[in-house]
Amino acid sequence: MTRGKAKPVIVPLHQLQPGQSADFFALLAEKSRGSTREGKPFFSCKFRDAKRTVAVMVWGDAAFFADCEERWQPGQAFKIRGTFSEHEKYGPKVDVTHVREATDADRTDGLDESQLVDRSRFDSAKMFAELRELAGREVANPPLRTLVLAILDRHAAALMQLPASPRHYFPFPGGWLEHTLGVTKSCLFLADRYTAHYPELKPPLNRDLVVAGSVLHEIGRVLELTPGVPGQTAEPTVDGRLFGYLMLGRDRVRAVAAAVPDLNPDLLRLLEHLLVSYLAIPEWGSPRLPAIPEVLILHHADDLDAKLEMFVRCLTRDAADGPFTDRDPVLGKHLLKQRSV
Hints:
By secondary structure, the protein is of the alpha+beta class. It is built from 10 helices and 7 strands. The strands form 2 sheets. Strands 3-2-1-4-5 form a 5-stranded antiparallel β-sheet. It has a two-stranded antiparallel sheet with strand order 6-7. A hairpin with a 5-residue loop joins strand 1 and strand 2. Helix 2 (about 125-140) packs parallel to helix 5 and helix 6 crosses helix 10 (about 295-315). The longest helix has 25 residues, at about 295-315. The chain starts with 20 loop residues before the first strand and ends in a 24-residue tail after the last helix.
């Protein structure tokens, strides 16, 4: 008796090696329609798990073209059979032979939607509560504290879902909170360190200003971005495209501050300067250069937190052979990953 062909094993998408064929679960992140030069339709799709995104082309003569056209929606989970490869120009891709929507029955084979989307390692509700408690404890000036807490409370739901940036650093749900909490803790340490180191500075470094600025430095993201469906990149709003998060953040702070009558206008003005200048470098999109020392603390704490997350994500997810990672498209370089110490 002839035995049937062995069923492909199920392998996590991010573990597939070039040339390997397997079954895997993935989330449809993007789907866009196109046409060949001959006018034949096709769909360009992106499937992903938490650590890898691959391209899948669905041509008009594919057996599953009609399903793709009529039923596939971004955010849906699928069971896919295909062969993984790394294209020199276009990156990771899968040539699909079979694909269907995942069902509850697939859970016995390891389907877990939480493993198909990138997200913060930390609970968003707990991070928000910690950030709010930190702001309430460390901002000593009552009107400024009222301003910061009012803004956090007004946008709590969005802040627990937003990334810190759409594609570069902490680009996943909960990323805004993870990044902001890290930056704020660093700024607290640095503000105390340099206040003690420079007692001759009059007035001294304004600790309240540093803390408030660190908590609110990317608050404009709530107006710049609209969280997409799970697995999709957060998309910019119309105002996000027109003005960017720095200007939108300043506008939000100014609008809420109008309802805090006891807030010192000079303190508000310095906070606004912090928000529009902390990037410090025009090539990074900073509209103004720093004019007060508190901005330097925020600038370097923010840059360190963002860059370190990008380094760690590259080093922990790279699958290249050899001592160096593949060239990271955001960092623009290779990183050394094979170390003995």
